[in-house]
Amino acid sequence: MSEQEINSEKNNFTSFVKKRKKTLIYICIIIVSLIIAFFTYKYFKQQEHIKTSEQFNSAKIKISKNLGQSTDILINIIEKKNEFYSPMSLNLLLEKKINLPNEKILELFDKVIEIRGLEKNTKNLYILKKGLFLSDFSDENTILKTLNPLINSNSIWRAQAIIILEKYYFANNEFEKSKQYNRMLKK
Description:
The chain is mainly alpha-helical. Among the domains are: 58-117, no CATH class; 119-187. Helix content is 80%, strand content 0%. It is built from 9 helices and no strands.
């Protein structure tokens, strides 16, 4: 390239910048603002996660002493729909057999299942746990409605869902249906 062509390109670039100076400044301000907003969001998410972690640990410590307060903390954590601590809180509520109405426990299961970002196998595990929980008191249609998505998929929890239904029907003296699910398990 000759020196004249280089100077011509420099002049074109400088005239381009001069003509669009305001637009370029606005674009830079927007980009910087978006970067700042992104890192601010990440920071606050991290702070919220730390706070949730502290609440969970507090509830875990208090659970043997003050069951009511711990229950409220754990329910609050589940309602935050934290990917890690909400499922753990539900597990702790179930493990300690905290006396809550069945409708409330089902609502908490639904909140955990609805968490965005939760791994598919983990969601399926909570669907399975919900089906198992329902099998103690609910009607056949509700249990089937809950477990059928697992049974009709290739989930790693498929076999367990079939076993739950097989045992449910066996316990209710519906031996033909129990055998049907047993055969399905062997396929």
